[in-house]
Amino acid sequence: MSQKSRISSIINTQQLSESITNFPTFDLAQLNIEETLDFELPTNLRLGHLAERVVSGLIKSSSNFNLLHENVQLIENKTTIGELDFIVKNLESGEIIHFELAYKFYLLDPSLSQNQINNWIGPNRRDSLIEKLEKLKSKQFPLLHHDCTQDTLSDLKVNNLSQSLCFLISLFVPHEFKENLTPEFAKAVKGYYADYATFQKMHNASKYYFLPHKKEWGIDPSENERWMTFEEINEELTFSIAEKQSPLIWQKEGSTFSELFVVWWG
User: Fold this and answer.
1) Is the model's pLDDT at 1 over the cut of 70?
2) Which of 213, 226, 218 is nearest to 252 (CA)?
3) What is the phi/psi pair of residue 102, to 5°?
């Protein structure tokens, strides 16, 4: 995958608005970026850190924001108590903003509750949207006002900073899901998920597949050039399921591309 594809995927990912998160939104669309971007990205980073590097590059390439600080380590009594993602300055308004970045993939489990916001979980059921929002509220954003933060950011008056959230999200619904989603969630749906037995039944000879590495998640499947048969991916797929890992799969059928998770818990 090209670095340009990785950058483009971040730019084009849907962002959750304040109506869902209850935090003001730092919208990447407000960055004035004129040229087509293709900057260098490290190859050894995990997905979340890779997304941070992309967003950092976008801010640095913009004409209306300055990046003042990023990945600010907060240390108290020689112990790291947390990190602030970005401190930026809006050159048009003069506003200085602390914003946190989240880049997440969630699957809808309608059985969890009657409220959709409670039903978005990680592919391996280890995390959830509602837990992430609560962590941001109770732990992450309050760090700005911790006693050690003013010493760390001595060039700023931290109490004058505003705070925002850039929550990039890709959502997946159950195979043949028929219920209605709220518009905010519906626009972020990228595909569906199914258990292994259902995935097998959906296969036909016209379909080809690719199992992207996690650092490639979010890239448009049409960018992929190497496709494999079901038999060629099946060993890796069954191993992942046995290890209780739910892989993302890119699928090609004719000129149609799609993406889905095959889950171990279905």
Assistant:
1) no
2) 226
3) -130, 135
Structure confidence at residue 67 (pLDDT): 98
CA–CA separation, 211 vs 6, rounded Å? 16
Q: Helix or strand or coil: residue 120?
A: strand
Average pLDDT, the chain: 95
- What pLDDT shows up at residue 34? 78
- The length of the chain is 266
Task: Tell how strand 96-108 and strand 79-90 pair up.
Answer: antiparallel
Q: Which stretches of the chain are assigned E, i.e. beta strand?
A: 65-76, 79-90, 96-108, 120-121, 162-174, 189-195, 207-210, 248-253, 256-263
Question: pLDDT by residue (tens digit) across 102-118?
Answer: 999 999 999 999 999 99
Q: Residue-wise over 19-32: b if at least 16 C-beta within 10 A, else e?
A: ebbebebbebeebe
Pull the structure tokens for residue 38.
């293709």
DSSP lists the bridge partners of residue 130 as: none
